[in-house]
Amino acid sequence: MPLHPVPARPDGLPDRIRHWIGGAFRDSADGAVFDVADPVSNSPYASAAAGGAADVDLAVAAARDAFPAWAAMGDRERANLLYRVADAVEEREDRLAGFESFDSGLPIAQARGQARRAAENFRYFADVIVALGEEAYRVGDRQLNYVVRSPTGVAGLITPWNTPFMLESWKLAPALAAGCPVVLKPAEWTPLSANLWPEILSAAGVPDGVVNIVHGIGAEAGQALVDHPDVPLISFTGSTTTGRHIVRSSAEHLKTLSMELGGKSPVVVFADADLDAALDSVLFGVFSLNGERCTAGSRVLVERSVYDDFTRRLAERAERVRVGAPGDPSTEVGALVHPEHYARVMDYVETGRGEAKLVAGGGRPSHLPEGNYLQPTVFADVPRDARIFQEEIFGPVVAVAPFDDEAEAVELANSTRYGLAAYVWTGDLRRGHRVAHAVESGMVWVNSHNVRDLRTPFGGVKDSGLGREGGAHSIDFFTESKIVHVMLSEVDTPVSACPEDRGAPVQHTPPT
Is pTM, for the whole model, over 0.90? Predict the structure, then answer.
């Protein structure tokens, strides 16, 4: 076996990744670049433009120039463009999936699903913007109040390295539907699939300047976008630490923020649950997407009477998960995205050995001596104060702990600083509702894994974020709502402006 295995290179792989500003590819203003490596060989395959403040300035200016015409376009016309974007994404599904798998380490079979979801995001928000009405309120026969919705302006979109293309679409689609031009800053570890957006958007006929892409390091390109005074909106998905920094930086210009941050989501399994279905869901929820997902059910809380058996079966199944090359259709867990992240996850695994009982995984698969690979890992009997119980690992690692009754289950579920998602498994639907209401999280699934309708709000509480996106909530984020009050009858003002007439009603005749 070669010392550094070379992954299968997808067709059309570029050796340069450049900014896309005002409808044209551009190098960085200062010529700066950074290397982009794949997670199997950890060897550079391309250089990417490293954006800075000057590049963000150009991108924001292009977006501002495009704003009036894009905002004035009718909802149906914008929707038709979004449908064409969806078609263009679907036509490139194989290429997209190949790029995403190669660049991020995501198993190719799962990357295909992400490509299809990206297309659906555009179709869905095209439907939303055409169907979405505005509110009106009748105040008896005296007054009519109605809401006017208008796009806010240039939206700054900062996206993460896990499922990058799909999460870019999740922000691009509602921003464009609402009438906002955008500046997108993709994650520096996974810029490859974002390099397909110019081709897709151009094929769909999206006007130049409506979407601009600035690559680069978060502390430079991302910071410049957050600091820019002509970008009133920032939608960010990423770590809680970075999210806090963005909130502080955005205070200067009182920006509107949507922050989808970290998670340490509990899966609560009661003894009366369908344990086979719960086990399948746990495996999918924490090991799919290489465990690099914000909604991963990475804390499994099991009622004590079935705890030993459930934990044993979970460990056995984890050992059988197929870890392999991302491009292999049979792979279930691929390579973690980057050596720095791999080292961080492995540090948690080593920490866990001293905090709990390792019952599965914990190391590199023997058949994969190189690359960022980790066998799915299960820790049992994990105490609540353990780091692996409290902190987001963002890899194929799960912590399992027992509970004795419903109250303890809820208390354990709520015992971290995160509150993004939660999962409850029980045969008692009344208990399912009670626990779902008591758990501190933005989203709860009862007897289900993470299956999410695009109409529903997405977001967390506590350290898992601010705001909600999804469905009409996304349109609310990218628009300003103005209330207009119109009198329909004579105005009866109770107090005159003249001191000598104070207290006497004044009759005003409406203009004809």
Answer: yes
